[in-house]
Write the structure tokens for this entry.
Amino acid sequence: MKEAYRDRYGSPDVVQVRDVPKPEPGEGEVLVRVRAASVNRADLDGLGPKPGFLRPFLGMRAPRDHRMGWDVAGEVESIGPGATRFKPGDAVFADLASHGGGSFAEFVAKPEKAFEPIPAGLSFEEASSLPHSAILALQGLRTRKGRTVQPGEKVLVVGASGNVGPFAVQIAKDLGAEVTAVCRTAKMDFVRSLGVDDVIDYQQADYTRSGRKWDWILDTDLRHSVFANRQVLRAGGRFISLGGDTGGILQGIVVGPLSSLFSDRWTGLMLWWKPFNRPDVDR
């Protein structure tokens, strides 16, 4: 079979396609024929890698694992010994972040617990876009203690036109929030089509200097400092970042929570991510 791989860090140009043996499902595994696999920001960041401090975990000079791809949707081809949840022909999807990745291939063999049935009415392409980004969006609109966006609250989604942002916009609207989106000029019409109440073009305006305030800010890739974001939070507000460069990550892990200790406003990095968490998949 064919699979995408990279043997060094760099731009997307380092990605190649190679022929490898078709995998066989092991104990408790299923073999899935891949019908669709979406590309996430996380896949692109992994090429860098971004942030740089991940190199000791991923490989200092080159990636230890050459496989690529997290999101997958396809059909069960065969089942391994002890696998009972699915049968050949079942349509399934998954986020393979916790199972070694490798969805950019013609087949994947993974534990059956990694997969869930594709809901009726969803195409493989649609299903493959959900596992990573939609779950991140849902969890990013909920605190570690379970507080979530309330009807009537003002929500700002920064990076509303990428992978996570469009889901965050739609989920926040479903929760009854008044949603403002931040994106670049070329994406404004697309973001408006998602049902936002307002759009800020970051190429023309800086939301941290707008004089406006929000109850909840979800930033998919920290571009402004934690302190700048605190300035535009309303009393009791929450600022949650999903990523950024090394400096942004450190701000989210250290500076944000420390600055929240004696405040009713919380700022920081979302550290409660549970990949493909079944209750959230159901939601």
